[in-house]
UniProtKB/TrEMBL annotation:
This is Glycosyltransferase. GO terms for molecular function: UDP-glucosyltransferase activity. Its EC number is 2.4.1.-. It comes from the Eukaryota. CDD domains: GT1_Gtf-like. It is an enzyme of class 2 (transferase). InterPro entries: UDP-glycosyltransf_plant, UDP_glucos_trans, UDP_glycos_trans_CS. Keywords: Glycosyltransferase, Transferase. It comes from Nicotiana tabacum (Common tobacco). Belongs to the UDP-glycosyltransferase family. Pfam families: UDPGT.
């Protein structure tokens, strides 16, 4: 009987991360018949996130192979303190609470499986220590761009090797641009992610994440070489310079850019998807702007009304995914409104009935793939960026949290597939100024009607993204190297 090598995948329970990891599991499964894949699932409580749990269940239920299995880790019993800070803090505490369960699982599998590798989400590096106890090689699945990986590692180097307080970067005068190895152009201080320059978040979580990346046997990145040429070159140069200057310093792990990995699974019922698709079918080609802020994205009511005013005035056709901000604690994810008429300006839904549609959660990749979509107002989460590039849809940037501000900067200034509604909006900034209806209307019109250069660049990157994953493409070859590495581990 043919011997199989097992790869264990552990995603973060946040929707944007778990969707990528589940697609990675399917990619491994289909790419090589010598691999068997086990995905260890951590679920968020329904009162925190009502989207990711049913999504995972639907993906697991659709699997019919014993080479791809899903194992649910025991439910955690969160304390009130978990929900007192942020969603990221809650997820981190959940990860920490599962260490003993991961260890129990590995003990139960030790005699029956040949383990080729342990792949952890970029927010789950505490599990690498558990894998080390069992001498299992650990890999990190980095679900953000290579540019942000380089920035995290650079900040970790400054903190640990140079004793520099990186939070001071946020106090830099806005006229003084900052140079970092993983960005081709100088970066405004205002777009530095809060997760790096907020001292509590950096020291409490992200510094340790970055230290974990350095210890990995490899870093798998959901990107492709043609999208981040400068970033991947900077990473390689960093390793070369390190080996010349400090012989005793451990080099950075090899990286495997294997994207774009896209969320191909359903996230709504067929009837809900059909309602959206049927409406899009009635719209002219490239006439509709999609407005969507992702699974964790929502805006305060006064800002929502500014968007509505802009859409009312600009005359553009639109599909707006409008979601309700968390209602009870800081850890909660956005939910769905029961009535849009109560929060939107009086008469808005009637006035825009023909040209627009307001909905809740959307099947984003399916929507972006529709020929009626001509532009995308996006929070610039990396999943959404890759989906937009895959579909050749130009973006108007409106970041909210995590690393989305530097993602937006990268899209506008380096890649050239976006215009900026804003680059430095941050939901955690209590003094965040309002984005006015006039500014929103101006940029949507530019995106949909004026900026042909951005549209042409989006078309070019669409072709490159699709070429990267076919046989002989850059990501196809990188994935092959990764699988060869995993099989080599199993043979040792």
């Amino acid at each position: 009987m043919e011997k199989l090598a097992e790869v264990i995948l552990i995603p973060s329970p946040a929707m944007g991360h778990i969707a990528q990891m589940l697609e990675l599991a399917k990619l491994f499964f289909h790419q090589n018949h010598h691999l068997t894949i086990t995905v260890l699932i951590m679920k968020l409580p329904d009162y925190i996130d009502a989207v990711s749990g049913p999504f995972v269940d639907s993906v697991a239920a659709s699997s019919s192979s014993d080479r791809l299995r899903f194992v649910h880790l025991p439910a955690a019993d969160p304390t009130p303190e978990w929900g007192s800070k942020t969603r990221g803090h809650f997820v981190y505490r959940l990860v920490q609470s599962q260490r003993s369960h991961i260890k129990d699982f590995l003990i139960s599998q030790r005699s029956s499986k040949t383990l080729a590798g342990f792949v952890v989400d970029m927010l789950c590096t505490p599990f690498m220590d558990v894998a080390d106890e069992f001498k299992i090689p650990s890999y990190v699945f980095f679900t953000s761009p290579a540019a942000f990986l380089g920035l995290m590692l650079h900040f970790q180097f400054l903190e640990d090797e140079c004793q520099q307080d990186v939070s001071l970067f946020k106090n830099t005068d806005s006229s003084n641009l900052l140079s970092f190895p993983s960005y081709a152009y100088p970066v405004p201080p205002s777009v530095l992610p809060m997760v790096l320059v907020d001292r509590d978040t950096w020291l409490g979580r992200f510094l340790d994440f970055a230290r974990g990346y350095r210890k990995a046997k490899g870093i798998i990145i959901n990107t492709f070489a043609e999208l981040e040429i400068h970033q991947l070159d900077a990473y390689k140069k960093n390793n070369c310079n390190m080996s010349r200057s400090k012989q005793d310093q451990v080099p950075l792990p090899p990286i495997y850019p294997i994207g774009p990995i896209l969320n191909q699974s359903k996230s709504k019922s067929e009837s809900e998807e059909a309602e959206i698709t049927n409406w899009l079918d009635q719209q002219p080609t490239k006439s509709v702007v999609l407005i969507c802020f992702g699974s964790q994205g929502s805006l305060p009511l006064d800002q929502v009304k500014q968007i509505a005013l802009a859409l009312d005035n600009c005359g553009c056709r639109f599909l707006w995914s409008l979601r309700q901000p968390p209602q009870s604690n800081n850890a909660q994810f956005p939910g769905e409104y029961t009535s849009y008429s109560e929060i939107l300006p009086e008469g808005f839904l009637d006035r825009t009935e023909i040209k627009g549609k307001v909905v809740g959660w959307v099947p984003q990749l399916k929507v972006l793939s529709h020929e009626a979509i001509g532009g995308f107002v996006s929070h610039c989460g990396w999943n959404s960026i890759l989906e937009s590039i895959w579909c050749g849809v130009p973006i108007a940037t409106w970041p909210l949290h995590s690393e989305q501000q530097v993602n937006a900067f990268q899209l506008v200034k380096e890649v050239g597939v976006a215009v900026d509604i804003t680059l430095d909006y941050c939901e955690r900034n209590k003094d965040q100024p309002m984005v006015t209806a006039d500014a929103i209307e101006k940029r949507i019109k530019e995106l949909m009607e004026i900026n042909t250069a951005v549209r042409e660049k989006a078309k070019e990157m669409k072709e490159k993204s699709r070429a990267s994953v076919i046989e002989g493409g850059s990501s196809y070859l990188s994935l092959g190297k990764l699988i060869d590495e995993l099989l080599k581990n199993a043979a040792l």
